[in-house]
Amino acid sequence: MSSTEQPVRVEYVTDPAAAMSSLAAADRFGEYVMYEQPDGWVFAADPLGGIELDAGELRTTWAGETTARAWSGSPADTLDAALASLADLSGEERGAYGWIAFEFCAYSLDVTSYLNQRTPLAQLMIPRIEVRIDGGGVRVSGATPAETCDIHDLIAASQGAVLPTAHPVDVRPDVTDYQGRVAAAVAEIQAGEYQKVILSRKVALPFPVDVPATYRLGRANNTPARSFLLRLGGLEAAGFSPELVASVDDARVVTTEPLAGTRAFGLGTQADDAARADLLSDPKEIVEHAISVQTSFAEIASVAEIGTPSVSDFMAVRERGSVQHLASTVRGTLAAGRSSWDALDVLFPSVTASGIPKREGVDSVFRNDHDPRGLYSGAVVRVSPSGALEATLVLRAIYQTGEGAWLRAGAGIVSQSKPEREFEETCEKLGSVAPYVVRG
Question: Which residues are catalytic?
Answer without folding.
Answer: 243
